[in-house]
Amino acid sequence: MRTATPRSREAVEAVIKAYDVRGIVGEGIDADFMRDTGAAFGRLMRSEEATQILIGHDMRASGPGLARAFADGVLEQGVDVVMLGLTSTDQLYYASGVRSCPGAMFTASHNPAAYNGIKLCRSGARPVGQESGLATIIDDLVAGVPGFDGARGTLTEDDCLEGYGEYLRELVDLSGIRPLKVAVDAANGMGGHTVPAVLKNLPLEIEPLFFELDGSFPNHEANPLDPKNLVDLQKFVLDTKADIGLAFDGDADRCFVIDELGQPVSPSAVCAIVAERYLAEKPGATIIHNLITSKAVPEIIAENGGKAVRTRVGHSFIKATMASAGAVFGGEHSAHYYFTEFFNADSGMLAAMHVLAALGGQAKPLSEMMAKYDRYEASGEINSQLASKAAQEERTQAVLDHFANRIEKIDRLDGVTVELKGTKAWFNVRASNTEPLLRLNAEAPTRAEVDALSAEVLSVIRA
């Protein structure tokens, strides 16, 4: 019976964030840490009477070894393990949902190749965040995870890719849409694994870009939130004369959309069109949106007879609110989209299928179809590196002081959101939950206004 060696709280909290585990491999993230984290998670799940945990990993080179170490820790606690192998994050959520098992997904999502981490969930893809289990895991790692004197768990291997594809195709029927040419940039991430399995035998001509699985990301980073990582797809859409472009992040739980003119479609517009589709089927339903999404989102929800509920950023917070509010759909500015029939979990693939269904169900090109959902201009997420929490707080307060005489309304649901007097302009400044960054998002009626506002806020943050 192995009892884990105690660890410093500072070291543990450096990699266990608000809603996941993430860090640089070799600097806080290694096999020993993952074995102990697996033991802590196994112990927590055993205390909740779980008998089996599903484990998947993305295409990062460090994934298989770290996943195996984590599995060893789980097995030490007398809990069985099913190794799913290569999976997208939403594929792991699917398996957790249909099998009613807790899960651990090894990924660092959009982060560079040096990173890895874990997204944890309970059975039914229910989130494990700081207030719903991660704090307990931290305490166990700091104290030293106690050993278990019962029988060791058993390990098996399985694959759920085909079942995942079938499940999604049943949720969104694309069989009757008009033929579409779809350019897909997988960024050498898990989209290259899942797209061929899901979007098959449909009236879709898939044009693949960077489908080879490679966690070193040789072509560009798997972070489509950064505009520079969309450039290849924008050109590819034009070169292939595609009707639509889809860009997935590394673990394929996010999807960004490019129109036939090579222009990005804002995630807020995607949120709005999916919300509209749900409200057409379920009048009066509740839709979740985070506080960074465009004001157009709650406006369109209300116009379609729905109830809009605003929440903070982050998947564990959104999922919890989805459940408590009985919401049918939720969207974030970062292109995370959550679905009640997908266990309140996020799926980039399912969001893409809704957009394909909307596009293929009418005759207009995507740019014309989406025009009514873009009512404001947005800055996009602009990051400033400020390593310490004290520096982030000091710069945030400096921004509030700078705008003090022009503030109409302020709230602190997540960072600070400021609405300015005499205009529809607003901005949010918040600390990242996963990186040493202070994030700025701004919105205004015109491009000139949002550019000027962003520059003014950044001049204070970066002073």
TrEMBL record:
<dbReference type="GO" id="GO:0005975">
    <property type="term" value="P:carbohydrate metabolic process"/>
</dbReference>
<dbReference type="Pfam" id="PF02879">
    <property type="entry name" value="PGM_PMM_II"/>
</dbReference>
<feature type="domain" description="Alpha-D-phosphohexomutase C-terminal">
    <location>
        <begin position="381"/>
        <end position="458"/>
    </location>
</feature>
<dbReference type="Pfam" id="PF02880">
    <property type="entry name" value="PGM_PMM_III"/>
</dbReference>
<keyword id="KW-0479">Metal-binding</keyword>
<keyword id="KW-0413">Isomerase</keyword>
<dbReference type="GO" id="GO:0046872">
    <property type="term" value="F:metal ion binding"/>
</dbReference>
<dbReference type="Pfam" id="PF02878">
    <property type="entry name" value="PGM_PMM_I"/>
</dbReference>
<dbReference type="InterPro" id="IPR005844">
    <property type="entry name" value="A-D-PHexomutase_a/b/a-I"/>
</dbReference>
<dbReference type="InterPro" id="IPR036900">
    <property type="entry name" value="A-D-PHexomutase_C_sf"/>
</dbReference>
<keyword id="KW-0460">Magnesium</keyword>
<comment type="similarity">
    <text>Belongs to the phosphohexose mutase family.</text>
</comment>
<dbReference type="Pfam" id="PF00408">
    <property type="entry name" value="PGM_PMM_IV"/>
</dbReference>
<dbReference type="InterPro" id="IPR005841">
    <property type="entry name" value="Alpha-D-phosphohexomutase_SF"/>
</dbReference>
<feature type="domain" description="Alpha-D-phosphohexomutase alpha/beta/alpha">
    <location>
        <begin position="163"/>
        <end position="262"/>
    </location>
</feature>
<protein>
    <submittedName>
        <fullName>Phosphomannomutase/phosphoglucomutase</fullName>
        <ecNumber>5.4.2.2</ecNumber>
    </submittedName>
</protein>
<feature type="domain" description="Alpha-D-phosphohexomutase alpha/beta/alpha">
    <location>
        <begin position="269"/>
        <end position="376"/>
    </location>
</feature>
<dbReference type="InterPro" id="IPR016055">
    <property type="entry name" value="A-D-PHexomutase_a/b/a-I/II/III"/>
</dbReference>
<keyword id="KW-0597">Phosphoprotein</keyword>
<dbReference type="InterPro" id="IPR005843">
    <property type="entry name" value="A-D-PHexomutase_C"/>
</dbReference>
<feature type="domain" description="Alpha-D-phosphohexomutase alpha/beta/alpha">
    <location>
        <begin position="16"/>
        <end position="131"/>
    </location>
</feature>
<dbReference type="GO" id="GO:0004614">
    <property type="term" value="F:phosphoglucomutase activity"/>
</dbReference>
<dbReference type="InterPro" id="IPR005845">
    <property type="entry name" value="A-D-PHexomutase_a/b/a-II"/>
</dbReference>
<dbReference type="InterPro" id="IPR005846">
    <property type="entry name" value="A-D-PHexomutase_a/b/a-III"/>
</dbReference>
